[in-house]
Amino acid sequence: MELVSRQDPHLRQVVWFAVCCRALTLLLQASLPLLNQRCSALFDLLIPDHPADAFSPPRLAQPGPWDVLVERLLGGLSRWDAEHFLFIAERGYLYEHNCAFFPLYPLSLRALAEAALWPFRRLLRLRSRLLLSAVLLNSLFSALAAAALFELGCVVLRSRRVAFLAALLFSVSPANVFMAAAYSESMFAFLAFSAMWQLEKGQGWLSGLLFSLASGVRANGLVNAGFALHACGKRFALQLQGGSGPVRKLLPLWKQLLRAASSAVLVCAGVFLPFALFQYYAYVRFCGPGTDLEQAVPKPLLQLALDKGYRLAAGNGVKAPWCSQRFPVVYSYIQDTYWNVGFLRYFELRQIPNFLLALPVALLGSWAAWTYVVANPRHCLTLGLERRKSEGEGKPRAGFCCPAVFVYVVHATVLLVFGFFCMHVQVLTRFLGSSSPILYWFSAHLLQEHEPLLRSDDQTTGPRSEKSPLSKSPSSQGTPGNPVVRLLLNCRSITPLSRCVLGFFLSYWLLGLVLHCNFLPWT
């Protein structure tokens, strides 16, 4: 696979660093129960038990000794929404609000648990195998996502130095705990970044397939259709600007227009297809005729539905309100009814701590958009569709402010604005961290431009330049040096801006790991 090419030492370093960071995350997570036991009084004082009102279905099967061990070591990765994914993988979409979580990730967990972990079925019950599957899959997807981000950065930024640093920062992402836990963020990041990379390489149909798979993982994958639309529009606009002259050239232009339009329609249809199919499945399951489902549901799960007010698939003829809507979309109904998600609904005084939690990523995303607009005002006004005149005989600008970054800045800004005003704002960090490369590209840009330890006058303008500035490091004969590790080892001498950027990434990684694994609210 091209992602793990053996001929690129920087790519090997990216994957190796991602694997090490994931291993460290799992080790720290596994050590938390031991620390809780050894320092219980101190931990109860600093991190008191939190009575989380989260989805927590009863365990029906009696756990064996190996199940207890798996739960003790990895149980912290099954908190909050992870319970939904594990429950869906084990029992399907039993409750109505489970339909807020898309099926591709839990299907992958079940497939791995039943296939690769099948020999352990006598030692581990299904839930334990699903939890192990989540750890294995997310470790794989997070490493592949880092590699895909590096390749994407090389093509878009035209600077291997910045792309390398950004991919390393992804491995210490502030949303790192969600990349390790039984959440769909790692899988989505891999599919989204890979689709963007293939689109930049001109592989339109492969990128469309990957975008389609991503929309089967998370709902915000629908927004990725904008990349395909912009690519089609840009291609046609450049043909118009380059085709001056005779009328006889108009016919090929019309052919190109039809080709671009048909390609855009097909790609968008592919992106929206998984969403539409899943909504249809939910409609058939929860709005169709009764099937006496309650007789097949274990009594503890039925009791949970009664206690919590969860709606089961219609078995008594009573249908949910959304079933009678003109366009019955269960996803929007669940967000509105179960979690009170909507425009400005989170703007309450008691939510100020959550806004403070989202403040760093909101400021970083806003700063990135402002920096790009100031550096490319005309390019932004023309929506990136105008052919840029080359500056003399020089090569195109490289780095974060290069023209190709425009569509990614727009994508990140749309997600940022929507998440800030219409979602539970504390999820903004993982929302952007798993969906957009801008968070990592702009952070790498800030470090590269303002940190003397990393600053260099040399520029890399090709996505595969053999003379990378990083090759000038002492370790260039083998594995290239790791600039993130270098900055951390020299933390006392780096600039305040570098301390803020790295402090944000590392503090959210470690603090999120402690709080999330102890069932405390986090991003």
From TrEMBL:
Coiled coil: none annotated. Keywords: Endoplasmic reticulum, Glycosyltransferase, GPI-anchor biosynthesis, Membrane, Transferase, Transmembrane, Transmembrane helix. It is found in: Endoplasmic reticulum membrane. One of its GO terms (cellular component) is mannosyltransferase complex. Residues 456-469 have a biased composition (Basic and acidic residues). GO terms for molecular function: alpha-1,6-mannosyltransferase activity; GPI mannosyltransferase activity. It comes from the Eukaryota. InterPro entries: PIG-V/Gpi18 (IPR007315). It is a multi-pass membrane protein. The chain crosses the membrane at residues 130-150, 162-183, 257-282, 355-375, 396-421, 500-522. Its EC number is 2.4.1.-. Pfam families: Mannosyl_trans2. The keyword Transmembrane helix applies. The keyword Transcription does not apply. One of its GO terms (biological process) is GPI anchor biosynthetic process. Its main location: endoplasmic reticulum. Residues 456-480 are annotated as: Disordered. Mannosyltransferase involved in glycosylphosphatidylinositol-anchor biosynthesis. Belongs to the PIGV family. PANTHER family: GPI MANNOSYLTRANSFERASE 2 (PTHR12468). This is GPI mannosyltransferase 2. It comes from Podargus strigoides (Tawny frogmouth). The gene is Pigv.
